[in-house]
Amino acid sequence: MALNALLTLRVSVITLDSKYIVGTLISCDNQMNLVLEDAYDRIIRSESSAEPSEIRPFGIYLVRGDNVALCGRVDEEMDKTIDWTRVRGEPIGTTRHAA
């Protein structure tokens, strides 16, 4: 599916530096640069952390295409049923480009 098909929809973006960003896709280009509106970062804490997971609002956010690992549509109905402060997980880790 082309990214243009996701314009005006809520998307989830996982970056190469392990950020988990959700927002409404308002613009994209052929280098996969993404502009998200009403964006926020979901910070998922590990099981051993005393702090709850959190959501950090960004507003309008630009994700450079060379930092995008994954971009997909959010099922908004299912997303509303999840208490994201209770979600736990281990860090994804970084990704290296092989030369």
TrEMBL record:
It is found in: Nucleus. It holds the Pfam family LSM. GO terms for molecular function: mRNA binding. GO terms for cellular component: precatalytic spliceosome; U4/U6 x U5 tri-snRNP complex; U6 snRNP. The keyword RNA-binding applies. InterPro entries: Lsm8, LSM_dom_sf, PTHR15588, Sm, Sm_dom_euk/arc. Its main location: nucleus. One of its GO terms (biological process) is mRNA splicing, via spliceosome. Residues 1-77 form the Sm domain. Keywords: mRNA processing, mRNA splicing, Nucleus, Ribonucleoprotein, RNA-binding, Spliceosome. Plays role in pre-mRNA splicing as component of the U4/U6-U5 tri-snRNP complex that is involved in spliceosome assembly, and as component of the precatalytic spliceosome (spliceosome B complex). The heptameric LSM2-8 complex binds specifically to the 3'-terminal U-tract of U6 snRNA. LSm subunits form a heteromer with a doughnut shape. Belongs to the snRNP Sm proteins family. This is LSM2-LSM8 complex subunit LSM8. It comes from Amniculicola lignicola CBS 123094. The gene is LSM8.
